[in-house]
Amino acid sequence: MEHGQTAEMNDSNGEAVIVINGLCKSFGNNHVLNNFNLRLNSKENLVVLGRSGSGKSVLIKCIIGLLKPDDGEIIVFGNNVDELSHHELDMLRTEIGFLFQSNALYDSMTVRENLEFPLRRHWFELSQKEVDDMVMEALDNVNLGHTSEMMPAELSGGMAKRIALARTMILRPKVILYDEPTTGLDPITAREIESLILKLHDKYQTSSIIISHDMNCVKNTADRVALLLDGKCYTEGSFEDLEKSEDEHVKQFFE
Amino acid sequence: MDIVAKTRDFMSQTGYMARFTGQLFTLGTKPPYEFKEFLVQCYIIGYRSLPLVALTGFIMGLVLTMQLRPSLVYYGVQSQLPVMVGIAIVREIGPVITALIFAGKIGSSIGAELGSMKVTEQIDAMEVSGTNPYKYLVATRVVAGTLMLPVLTMLADAISLFGAYIGVNISAVTSFKLFFMQILRTLEFGDVLPAFIKTFFFGFAVSIVGCYKGYNSNKGTRGVGNSANSAVVLSSVFIFIIDLLAVQVTAILGLN
């Protein structure tokens, strides 16, 4: 999709779970997003690539409703995020997982309590055994079953990221937004996180938007890559297509 | 910053804080209610503050008695010491000192905790998980703080009066029964009720200021420190303003 076109809910690529049309967001005189268009198809891993400070995190925070757009519309599962009531937005958020760059684990709670927190708030009918089973399944998914009674401060960076990923997945969201999932991790741990992203994607059939400027992460996880430049979706395509591009702006990322 | 900009900043801060407080009566009153977290906060805010409040209350009563005694002996009215100390503690010193201690302990703790959660994106994480952080973090703390300070003040008053009894007995001998009967005979409805009611307002002010400062903390560790610090300073100022208003209202109602 070239810049300037608007995204539609249905096209030849299949059903769209997120459609963003003409999104604008400014902070004072800093126009971070300027008529940004994007669509995320069902069961697709879409990587949004861009330089630091280009507005990638702002984009996904607008999608989840943490930031209010100045203009444009964000349609998630057919709902315009900006028009939802507080309660409707909370319900929609249970369908969307968000992995923070800083992990954002609740530091006053154990790992188990971190994972139980969303379950207890939305799935009231679950018995303690069912909660325990779901927590253990989530921890086993990230190979950290032994950490359930640990505090976040006792975890390494890679472990904290995996626990945050387990918490993100515990409500079985249909869409996951990853904010720079491998930033600040050593290469080996970063590859482990990428593998987990792909494993969970296959297991739960999720659709994902992955924000990154780590080219290894982009290459390993992306079905499609969108390049965010000057507040717009400059271009998009498969990793291989963009890698071969002769465009100067695109080449900067692949050199 | 010039005076115009400072005034504008003050007005906008006042507006934000009023809106933040108003949310308690709109968002905070809607179900589902966070009873479990409310009880946890009652335990943290109330029970865990008890040793500090008890200690300061005891010292307050003891010191006040020891300081007052020489003056009363000079005028030959030392027999009025229990009455004077009792009225001073129950009407004014007990509620205000307890509220100030509460501001130092709970106001700063809430400011720092919520500020830290804000800068580490834990509040955002709560929000994206479909939990309303205002209801979970703010409403529970404010209601717990509002209800716990009056309880703590009653306990502080009682312990303070016991401290006063010890203070009296350092220089003279007075029976426990006589000391407290003298105080209870003198205290009236108008002494106890306004003092008790204003502690709800003190508790509300300390908790809402702590939450506001923490919830709107700036990025970075300095922001967290500033939140904790300004929560204590601002809530202490509010305590004195509320106390001043309470005295005026009490006078208007003829309860003085």
Counting copies of identical and different chains, the oligomeric state is heterodimer
CATH superfamily of the domain at 94-222 in chain A: P-loop containing nucleotide triphosphate hydrolases
What's the story with the biggest beta sheet of chain B? none
Structural class of chain A: alpha/beta
Q: Would you tell me the overall average pLDDT of chain A?
A: 89
From the helix content, strand content and strand pairing of chain B, which structural class follows? mainly alpha
Series of secondary-structure elements of chain A, N-terminal to C-terminal: EEEEHEEHEHHHEHEHEEHH
List keywords for this structure.
heterodimer; A: Rossmann fold; 6-stranded mixed beta sheet; 5-stranded antiparallel beta sheet; disordered N terminus; B: 256 residues; mainly alpha; 9 helices; 84% helix
Write the layout of secondary structure elements.
The complex is a heterodimer of chains A (255) and B (256).
Chain A: E1 10-11, E2 14-27, E3 30-41, E4 45-49, H1 56-63, E5 71-76, E6 79-80, H2 86-93, E7 96-99, H3 111-122, H4 128-141, H5 157-169, E8 175-179, H6 187-204, E9 207-212, H7 215-221, E10 224-229, E11 232-237, H8 239-243, H9 248-254
Parallel strand pairs in A: 4-9, 4-10, 7-8, 8-9
Antiparallel strand pairs in A: 1-2, 2-3, 2-5, 5-6, 10-11
Helix pairs in contact in A: 3-4, 5-6, 6-7
Chain B: H1 3-26, H2 35-45, H3 50-74, H4 81-119, H5 122-128, H6 133-171, H7 176-186, H8 189-215, H9 221-252
Helix pairs in contact in B: 2-6, 3-4, 3-6, 4-6, 4-7, 4-8, 4-9, 6-8, 8-9
Structure commentary:
The complex is a heterodimer of chains A (255) and B (256). Chain A is an alpha/beta fold and 255 residues long. Chain A has a domain at 94-222: 3-Layer(aba) Sandwich (Rossmann fold), CATH 3.40.50.300. Helices cover 36% and strands 27% of the residues of chain A. Chain A has helices at 56-63, 86-93, 111-122, 128-141, 157-169, 187-204, 215-221, 239-243, 248-254, and strands spanning 10-11, 14-27, 30-41, 45-49, 71-76, 79-80, 96-99, 175-179, 207-212, 224-229, 232-237. In chain A, strands 7-8-9-4-10-11 form a six-stranded mixed β-sheet, with helices on both faces. In chain A, strands 1, 2, 3, 5 and 6 form a five-stranded antiparallel β-sheet that branches. In chain A, α3 crosses α4 (128-141) and α6 runs parallel beside α7. Chain A is globular. Residues 1-5 of chain A have low confidence and may be disordered. Chain B is an all-alpha fold and 256 residues long. Chain B has one domain (33-252). Chain B has nine helices and no strands. In chain B, α2 packs parallel to α6, α3 (50-74) packs antiparallel against α4 and α8 (189-215) runs antiparallel to α9 (221-252). The longest helix of chain B is centred in the middle third of the chain and has 39 residues, at 81-119. The model of chain B has no long low-confidence stretch (mean pLDDT 92). The A-B interface holds A 61, 64, 66, 86, 90-91, 93-94, 96, 98, 100, 102, 104-108, 117-118, 121-122, 171 and B 27, 113, 116-117, 120-122, 124-132.
